[in-house]
Write a structure and sequence with these properties.
The chain is an alpha+beta fold. It has a domain of about 45 residues. The protein has 4 helices and 4 strands. Strand 3 and strand 4 form a beta hairpin. Helix 1 packs across helix 2. The structure holds zinc ion (ZN).
Length: about 150
């Protein structure tokens, strides 16, 4: 059996005879990394998997309400990192609103087309996104009272 290079740790390993296509060594850390990458790809590419995963996560969190509070208390770096990331997302959002207000054209409806929609709850963008199609049916002149 020929030697391969592990996709996670980069060390040489010999695939098990039962699995000649093996691309990760048997080190538990590398196996965890393999599963993590598989799940990441699945969440990115498979909408059903992503929905199901999000639902399962929400159901689990509802049954374990103390978990995330305890996790945040025990991991202040995690909390700090998330706070910084959210603040920079909020800044980007504010900057784009200001950019729109500064535009020389008055605010008008977006052109028909496909858009990525993100739900904003209490000023925080959720992780759920949808691709939506917006069709502008009629254009109303801006000076007309509706
Ligand atoms: Zn490895």
């Amino acid at each position: 059996m020929e030697t391969k290079t592990c996709n996670a740790c980069g060390h040489p390993f010999t695939p098990r005879p039962q699995n000649p296509n093996q691309t990760y060594c048997t080190d538990p850390v590398c196996q965890r990394e393999r599963r993590r990458r598989w799940q990441q790809k699945k969440r990115r590419d498979d909408a059903d998997y992503r929905d199901n995963d999000a639902r399962a996560g929400k159901a689990w969190a509802a049954e374990n309400p103390a978990y995330w509070k305890q996790y945040r208390d025990a991991n202040p770096n995690y909390t700090e990192r998330n706070r910084n990331l959210q603040q920079s997302r909020n800044q980007k959002l504010r900057a784009s609103v200001i950019a729109n207000e500064d535009a020389s054209r008055p605010l008008c409806p977006p052109p028909s087309g496909r858009y990525r929609m993100v739900r904003i709850e209490n000023g925080v963008a959720s992780e759920d996104t949808w691709i939506v199609e917006i069709a502008v049916l009629t254009e109303i002149p801006l000076d007309e009272d509706v």
